Protein: Lipoprotein
Amino acid sequence: MRTRRAATAGKLTVVLATLALVVAGCGGPSPRAWAASVCQALSPWRAEISKLTSSTQQQMTAQTTPAQAKENLVRLFAGAEEASETARRKVEEAGVPEVERGTEVSAGFQGSLGKMRDAYGRARTTIDGLDTAQAGPFYDGVRAAVDTLNKEYDASALDTSKLDSPELKQAFDEVPECR
Structure:
């Protein structure tokens, strides 16, 4: 009898703990908390992308061999790809903001960062596949890869017109992490 009660109590504890997790998972972070988390995720990403842009421009004009330029560009684009995935993952970890259409807002941010990650990955793969035997064709290939990257990057921008949230707009304007 005692064993049966202990087993029942143990099952009840597990059910209650699971229910508590489910209920706790229903409410997402406040708009301010979510905006702060997103800005903390995007700040290092922006810095990395800025560094990439500057470094790519330098590589395109530097007096290096095609093999050196290829190695440097592949490394730079791999870094941007990794930074984009890290930012995407951190936005995912921020959860869903407690606002109307919060799921769509979070998914939009994650989707945009995922598309950027993929664009950098494709640019890295394209440049890694270029032949470095002749400088002219190599740099033409690099320019084409960067042009494609820029188009894909522009196309991956988050369309905020459908995800407009006054609470999130205010939060992004107010939290110190976003300044």
